[in-house]
Amino acid sequence: MLNRTDKSSQFRRTNQSIEGASRKDIISDQKSRKELGVPQEEERKMLGSKESEKRSQIKIGSHQQSRKTLRGQDEEEKGAKVIGEGRLDEYGEEEEDIVCLRFPHLSFCPYNYQSQLKETLFIEIQPGIYLCGFAMGLWTKYLLQKAVTNVLNLTSMEYTKRTKYFKYLNIDVHNTSDEDIKKHFRISNRFIRETLLQKGKVLIHCRDGLNIGPCFILAYLINEIKMPLKLGIEMLQNLIPQLDIAVHFYKQLEQYDLEKLALLQIKTKDS
């Protein structure tokens, strides 16, 4: 029989032996970790800092690359905006002399719809503002020779856009009595104004160049130059004897002219 003192001493010896064994295990584990190359806390920190440096270098490199890409895109866009007849040197495409008036966006065309590309209605209304019919608006080489940079397309027809050479604004307008063209004047006026401010030239073309296109030119003259509608009509008739503006469009132009005149009078009173 063991007394209480013997039991406690035996218990202490057992604990010491367990603690000694655990210390040995820990030391042997540390040795094995060193032998196997398992990183300690400091090594882990050093490796972590190196990894973060690598990641930051990768991020910086990718950021610089993206900036270079964006800079290159900007330079390409600036190059595409070069204005003048020099852009004709870039045009190396073979262009057909025949245009399809029925399927201008397709590669084939029935004989009945074929039309010879020739200089017909192409008039400079104001410096930098041209007017033409549908077929002339497809003649890329001719437009480049005239240094056209922007195209206001009012044809309501699908055709191949030469976006490499021209900036387009497409507005669908149909010659019907219920068509509201006045709602488009704000955006078309801005398009023409910005083209001229950038020293460019704008082409306005509709199907025949006698009705819808002249309406948008008159709207620009009324708004930007403060030209009265009557004077604008007389100027266009001198340039285009066959001018044929529809009655329903002419009424909208009259209303637009009165609105701009009233606004001008209010501004004059205030000043």
Task: Write a concise keyword list for the protein shown above.
271 residues, 7 helices, alpha/beta, single chain, Protein-Tyrosine Phosphatase, Chain A, 10% strand, 52% helix, globular
Per-chain topology:
Elements: H1 4-36, H2 41-80, E1 98-100, E2 114-116, E3 122-126, E4 129-132, H3 140-145, E5 150-153, E6 167-170, H4 185-197, E7 202-205, H5 212-224, H6 229-239, H7 247-270
Parallel strand pairs: 4-7, 5-6, 5-7
Antiparallel strand pairs: 1-2, 3-4
Helix pairs in contact: 4-5, 5-6, 5-7
Our count of helices gives 7
Strand content: 5-15%
CATH H-tier superfamily of the domain at 92-270? Protein tyrosine phosphatase superfamily
What is the fold-level CATH name, i.e. the topology of the domain at 92-270? Protein-Tyrosine Phosphatase, Chain A
State Rg. 39 Å
- DSSP strand count: 7
CATH class of the domain at 92-270: Alpha Beta
pLDDT averaged residue by residue: 75
**Percent range of helical residues:** 40-55%
Give the CATH architecture of the domain at 92-270: Alpha-Beta Complex
Structural class: alpha/beta
Give the uncertain stretches in residue-range form: 66-70, 73-86, 110-114
**Anisotropy-based shape:** globular
- What order do the helices and strands follow? HHEEEEHEEHEHHH
* Major beta sheet summary: 5 strands, mixed
Task: Characterise the protein shown here.
The longest helix is centred in the N-terminal third of the chain and has 40 residues, at 41-80. Strand 3 (122-126) and strand 4 form a beta hairpin. The protein has a five-stranded mixed sheet with strand order 3-4-7-5-6, with helices on one face. Helices cover 52% and strands 10% of the residues. The chain contains seven helices and seven strands; from the N terminus they run H-H-E-E-E-E-H-E-E-H-E-H-H-H. With 271 residues, it is α/β, with parallel strands linked by helices. It has a domain at 92-270: Protein tyrosine phosphatase superfamily (Protein-Tyrosine Phosphatase, Chain A). The chain has helices at residues 4-36, 41-80, 140-145, 185-197, 212-224, 229-239, 247-270; strands at 98-100, 114-116, 122-126, 129-132, 150-153, 167-170, 202-205. Pfam families: DSPc (PF00782). One of its GO terms (molecular function) is phosphoprotein phosphatase activity. Residues 21-56 have a biased composition (Basic and acidic residues). Residues 121-259 form the Tyrosine-protein phosphatase domain.
